[in-house]
Every structure is written in C-alpha cells, then in structure tokens.
Design the sequence.
C-alpha cells in the first residue's frame, strides 16, 4: 500500500487557518485594528466599502516595519510578540498567534504600505491568494497602511455565506467599538462608503463611551471602582431606570482586551437583584486589570474567551463592586429607621424665594363661650320633623310596585339590548387573551400574537408593492440613534420607507420622522423604530431570514399591542375580524399559535359529566 499522508501546501494551510481566524469582514477588521494598536499608534482610521467585501483599509501612524519585517509578516507563525512558550502566560499585546496576516492574504487581494520613522522610503507589498505579486520601495508616511480588497474572492462558498450588507456593517461597527472603547488614549475614525461614522478624539474612558454611544448616555452612567490584590475593577454601569429589554451595551475588558463571559455577566446581573425584573438587562462597561500569568487567553482563535485562575473570587469582587456603586450613588432603595420624620424638611432650590411664615388669628373666637351650637341650627333640627313621614306610605307603595314589575320583566320577558347580548360572546382574560364562544366550545385568542399576524401580512404586502400607507405626523419627531443603529437604519432606508415611514436623515446619527405607517395609530415612534432595529438584528443572527421577511416580522413584533393592555369590546371585535381575514390566521410566521380551541366535550370530561 502506498503512502497516503502528505503535507498540505502553504496556500491551502493558510486558507484552512483563515476559516478559523477570518470568519467575516469584521474578523479582518479586528485583527488589523489590534495590530495597529500593538504598533504604538495614537491615530488609527478604518475605511470600508460594500460592508468590507470590496475594501477594508486600516491606516496608523505607529512604528512601521522594515522591508524584511514587512515580507515576513505574511508568513505563518510569524510574530514579534512571543519568543517562547513561557511568553504565552505573560501576554500584554493583542495579536500574537502569527496567523492573522497569513490567513487574510490567503483569501483576499492585499496591499501593504509601511515605513519606519528613520527611513526615507517605505515598502509596498501586493499579495493575492498567498502569492506575492509585487514588492518594491514606495513613498509613504510613517506607520502602516493595510488594504484588503475583494475578501473571499478565491473562496466563493465562504462569500456566499456572508449576510446582507446592513448586518455585516453592524458586525464591523461592533468590532470597531470593542477595540476603540477601551483605548481612549488613541484617536479613532471610521468611514463607510465615504461617509464618516465615527470620529473619536483622545480622552477619558467616560468620554470615549459618550463619543461612541452619544451624549445622552452620560447621565445614565454610575462609576464603579474596586482595587484588590486579585483584580482591579473600574468602569461604569447604567442606572436601573435605563435598563433594556434586550442585552445591549454590555462590555467586559480584561487587560484592555474585549471578552465574553456569561459567568461574570451573571455577577453584574446579580448585583442589580431586586432593582430590575427578570426581562430587563443593565448596560455596563467594565475594565478588569489582572496579572497576565493568572489568565489564559490562548483558548480560542478570536481570543474573546479567557480562562481565569480564580474565577469565583473575581465573580464576588465584581458583584460587590457594582452593588457598592449602586448604593453609594443612592440607586439602591434604602430605609433609615433612625431618622426623625418630623425633621425631614425638604431642601430649597436655588430658584426658590424664602417666605416669612404667616399666622391667621380668629378675632371672634372666645374660649369661654359655652354655647357650642348656634341657635338657628337647633331651631332647624327640630322644626317640622313630622313632615319627614308625611309621604312614607305613598313612597313605599311605589317602590314595592316597581320591584314587582321589574321581577316580572326578568322572569317573563327579558328586555336585553341586542348589542349587549353580542358583547357577552367576547371577553378579555387577564388583559392577554380574548375568549369567544362557539357551538362546540370556546376559542381563545392571544391578542398580541393575533395583532402580530395581522401586521405581518400588512407589512409584507407593503414591502412587495414597494409602498405603504403613511399617516403624516402633526409635529415631525427628531430621533437620535446609536451610531451602529443609525448605520443600519441608513442601509434599510428604502425598505423602511416602503413600510410607510416618512423618514429622513439629519446629521450624523439623527433622523426626522414626518410620517408613520397607518397601522401604528398613536404609538411611540421612537420605541417602534428602536424595537424594529433590535428585532431585525436578533432575527438576522438567529433565524437567518430574508431581508423583507425579517423586516415584516420585526416591524409586526415591535408595533403589535402587548399583553397587559385592556381592550374595549369594539377593539376586540375589530381584532378578531381582522385576524380571520388573514391568509393564515392560526399561527405566526415562526409557527407559534395565535388561537387555541377549548372543546366542550373536553370541558365536560373535566367536570366528570
């Protein structure tokens, strides 16, 4: 039998490594930004086109590379960060695996321009699919410019698995935020298809958070600080009243590296115990500084998972730190049993004027007066008391006669109004379900799911026809979004308008809404749009739906009436009529039922008839 095991060519090995390291354009962005930080840069810019599929360019003003280093950087396992296995447990840099640039060069067309400060000329290298096409000297500024063009051009199957542009841009923005947030000492900028998305100046951690998520987040933040021998914790958590229904801005950084850790996330959530309901999630931005020898970051290709030597102790420290911060800033509810309530005088505002207390005196009051009841009152209380019973017998006879007639009507000939009789067939249960009677039993309708189904079919038709019905607002509303949501909304602008919104961009991340779909009536426009974007992102990652279907489902979910809303009879009747006019009234697009039938025979069996 001949030998069958062979060594893979470097190009194939690099493509296999790329499958682990470079999963999408955002993965390449992360690697390039981290390399720029390791190069000692204080100014970094990111430029993308076509959601990173056509171009990803990262420019920095760091140390730069010599001609030899520039060529070696594309070789597998080439790194300047580690020299021995012991260095793996004392890592203070970002990239260290030595696979990122080799993996990128295997699946894209790459151009590198770099120059060290002391050299007059720099080096330019062009590589396509791991093959060096060109290497020559060039005139460029100090630092490095790395351009990735036509990502996955030679791996079409991988390119076909990429999501829509709005989703890929969202992932790129997330990676950019994770890197830029924790490095407030570096100025970052980002451009998408020629439009500025971020322009972040150097500053403090709080200023960087505000620069990324907008000025309004500043008032929501509570500072957290805790210094122990095991770990140092610093950063911010949001006030309980600003908690969200979805996991939004939640960031853990360990030694300035973003990580994901469900166990530590539970520590923060636990610190908000009794302040939030189970379906609410706080925002947090926490930086942990720990001895590198106490952690292992080399357990995942993307380096977003870390092993801690003493994870339980860190859990307790984070929980305590957050809890103390909430208590220190009077966020947690407290009771002071030693305070005397009679001395609890409210503080004056700076705009309040001080008024002199006034005393009112009744000059006619005589403490020695013995007559406590005025003469006229006594006279009124005793005069003509016999008249109270003058018509007693007559009134009693009329009341008895009326009651007898009323009883005869109820027994012999009911005079119920026909509309009231119909109302008895529609009942609302627990402000969540609508109960209606059938000959064979009862029908129970989930009011939220029923409305979702109705809106889903309406919005699907609007998207297919390319135009929805719009109701103009009396006063246009200006809404501010996070930068990531603003970019997503900008990418979905045509479809959003087809749903029935009259919306235009104003400024960097603000939009003016002049009209809404007629189906929304008088609902909160800001909550509807925020819910639409949040649901769209969730559906894209979990359900992998087509864009139009995703938008229709997301919009229906965001705009539907919710459980807990009391409905009038007319509202219930309209909801039931519209539901049964749908093409598929019995379930949602995800298969969950809108209606269940309670059979009369089954009910009789429960009572043992």
Sequence:
């Amino acid at each position: 039998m001949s030998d069958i095991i062979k060594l893979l060519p470097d190009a194939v090995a690099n493509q296999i490594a790329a499958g682990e390291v470079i999963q999408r354009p955002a993965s390449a962005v992360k690697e390039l930004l981290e390399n720029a930080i390791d190069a000692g840069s204080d100014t970094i810019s990111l430029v993308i086109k076509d959601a990173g599929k056509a171009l990803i360019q990262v420019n920095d003003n760091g140390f730069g590379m010599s001609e030899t280093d520039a060529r070696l950087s594309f070789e597998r396992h080439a790194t300047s960060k580690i020299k021995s296995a012991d260095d793996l447990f004392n890592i203070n840099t970002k990239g260290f695996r030595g696979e990122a640039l080799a993996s990128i060069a295997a699946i894209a067309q790459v151009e590198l321009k770099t120059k060290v400060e002391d050299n007059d000329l720099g080096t330019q290298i062009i590589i396509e699919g791991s093959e060096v096409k060109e290497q020559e000297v060039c005139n460029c500024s100090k630092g490095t410019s790395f351009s990735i063009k036509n990502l996955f051009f030679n791996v079409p199957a991988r390119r076909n698995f990429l999501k829509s542009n709005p989703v890929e841009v969202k992932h790129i923005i997330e990676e950019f935020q994770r890197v830029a947030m924790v490095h407030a000492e570096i100025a970052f900028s980002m451009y998408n298809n020629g439009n500025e998305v971020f322009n972040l100046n150097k500053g403090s951690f709080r200023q960087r958070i505000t620069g990324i998520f907008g000025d309004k987040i500043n008032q929501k933040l509570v500072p957290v600080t805790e210094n122990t021998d095991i770990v140092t914790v610093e950063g911010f958590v949001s006030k309980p009243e600003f908690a969200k229904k979805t996991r939004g801005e939640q960031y853990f950084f360990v030694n300035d590296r973003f990580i994901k850790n469900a166990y530590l996330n539970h520590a923060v959530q636990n610190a908000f115990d009794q302040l939030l309901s189970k379906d609410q999630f706080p925002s947090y931005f926490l930086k942990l500084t720990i001895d590198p020898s106490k952690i292992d970051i080399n357990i995942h290709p993307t380096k977003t998972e870390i092993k801690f030597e003493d994870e339980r102790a860190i859990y307790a420290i984070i929980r305590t730190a957050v809890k103390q911060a909430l208590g220190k800033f009077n966020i947690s509810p407290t009771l002071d049993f030693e305070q005397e309530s009679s001395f609890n005088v409210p503080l004056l505002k700076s705009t309040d004027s001080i008024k002199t207390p006034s005393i009112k005196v009744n000059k006619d009051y005589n403490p020695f007066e013995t007559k406590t009841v005025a003469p006229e009152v006594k006279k009124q209380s005793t005069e003509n008391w016999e008249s109270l019973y003058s018509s007693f017998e007559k009134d009693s006879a009329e009341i008895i006669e009326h009651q007898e007639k009323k009883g005869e009507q109820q027994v012999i000939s009911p005079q119920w109004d026909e509309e009231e009789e119909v109302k008895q067939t529609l009942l609302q249960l627990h402000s969540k379900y609508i109960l209606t009677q059938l000959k064979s039993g009862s029908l129970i309708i989930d009011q939220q799911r029923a409305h979702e189904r109705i809106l889903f079919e309406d919005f699907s038709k609007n998207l297919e026809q390319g135009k929805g019905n719009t109701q103009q607002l009396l006063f246009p509303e200006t809404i501010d979004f996070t930068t990531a949501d603003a970019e997503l909304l900008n990418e979905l602008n045509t479809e959003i308008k087809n749903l029935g919104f009259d919306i235009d961009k104003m400024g960097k991340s603000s939009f003016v809404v002049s009209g809404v779909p007629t189906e929304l009536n008088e609902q909160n426009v800001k909550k509807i749009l925020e819910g639409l974007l949040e649901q769209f992102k969730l559906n894209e990652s979990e359900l992998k739906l087509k864009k139009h279907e995703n938008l229709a489902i997301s919009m229906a979910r965001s705009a539907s009436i919710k459980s807990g809303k009391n409905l009038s009879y007319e509202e219930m009747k309209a909801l039931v009529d519209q539901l049964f006019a749908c093409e598929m009234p019995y379930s949602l697009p995800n298969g969950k039922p809108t209606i269940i039938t309670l059979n009369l025979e089954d009910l009789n069996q429960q009572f043992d008839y």
User: Anything to note?
Assistant: The radius of gyration is 35 Å. Residues 332-345, 372-381, 406-424 have pLDDT under 50 and may be disordered. The domain at 206-328 is CATH 3.30.230.10 (Ribosomal Protein S5; domain 2). DSSP finds 19 helices and 22 strands in the chain.
